[in-house]
Amino acid sequence: MANLLDIRRRIKSVKNTQQITKAMKMVSAAKLKRAQDRVVAARPFANKMTEVLTELAAREREDFHHPLLDSRGDERYLVILVTADKGLCGAFNTNIIKAAQVFLRQHEGKQLEMLVAGRKGRDFFRRRNMTISGEYIGLTGSGRVEYEEAVNVAHAVIKRFSEDKELDKVFIIYNEFKSVIQQRVVVEQLLPVARVEENADSAAPGREGAQGVQPLTLVDYIYEQSPEDIFSRLLPRFVETQIYRALLESIASEQGARMTAMDAASKNAGELINTLTLNMNRIRQARITTEIIEIVSGSAAAAR
Questions:
Q1: CA atoms within 13 A on the CB side of 154
Q2: pTM, to two decimals
Q3: Is residue 78 helix, strand or coil?
Q4: What backbone torsions phi and psi does residue 297 show, to the nearest 5 degrees?
């Protein structure tokens, strides 16, 4: 039978843990509100830019092309994986890592390498001898990411794709925020910029599971500047915006997942405290009953 002192210590330990999980839930709730506001503000701009550029890419003139539109091969892949820097957020990191593993298995035989944003993804694939060409730790850990940080990531990718021509395709995998209790894994082709003809039936070319993007209808644009100027300015900005949005979505998803996980942990701690308290009371009652029986038995023996 368990010792009363041990049970009291365990109850105290669980109560301390419950206080921590409640505090973490409150912190995540505060961060989630800010992150959600930034995601909602960024989505319309990112979606419209995707719509405009995919249409422009579809109408690209024969006398002009841009390196970010070139489909040069299908062998060298770069996967940008966005995970969290910390745990305690339920299945958030597990789901995104599983999606990355599925993607890697589907493209066995290709020259695959990763650029990871987030400590969890970096540590997981480093232990499995995956080629990691770049890592960005701390981008999502603070709960707030600046556009300049996304620009740094985008410029590194653009340089390798368009200038050095070391890559054939670039994909990005991240969690898209839908609600506090639901996140959706998105696998999106970032480069080369997909054309409408290649994905006529999809809401957004190269994207699986994205929300908020309507089916595209080709528009006949009038170019007030030359196509060279338009593509040279918009295409790098498009890559920067898509990476920035992915980071924002990931931050909001992480805080929502952590808030849900900490709420469940607090409830489980409360249930465990109740169970331990009930068990402790039963042991106390059994001991009191045993002592009463011993006293009564001793009195009865003395009376004889």
A1: 20
A2: 0.81
A3: strand
A4: -65, -40
- Stretch 223-251: mean pLDDT, rounded? 85
CA-based torsion, 241, 242, 247, 253: positive or negative: positive
Q: Return d(Cα 287, Cα 123) in angstroms, integer.
A: 52
Domain 27-258 has CATH 3.40.1380.10: yes
State which amino acid sits at residue 148: E
- What one-letter code names the amino acid at 277? T
Residue 196: closest CA among 210, 168, 216, 213: 216
Q: Report the catalytic residues.
A: 89
Other C-beta atoms closer than 10 Å to the C-beta of 296 total 10
**From CA 173, how far away is CA 97, in angstroms rounded?**
9
**Strands of the 111-117 sheet, one edge to the other:** 132-136, 111-117, 76-82, 169-179, 182-191, 207-208
Distance between the two ends of the chain, CA-based, in angstroms?
34
Q: Which amino acid is at 7?
A: I
Which pLDDT tens digit goes with each residue over 152-173? 999 999 999 888 888 989 999 9
CA-based radius of gyration for the chain: 28
38-83 pLDDT per residue, tens: 888 888 888 888 877 777 766 655 556 778 877 777 889 999 999 9
DSSP string, 214-237: PPP-------SS-HHHHHHHHHHH
Q: How far is CA 216 from CA 5, 48, 201, 231, 261, in A?
A: 68, 10, 9, 19, 38
Select from 187, 191, 184, 133 the least CA-distant residue to 161.
191
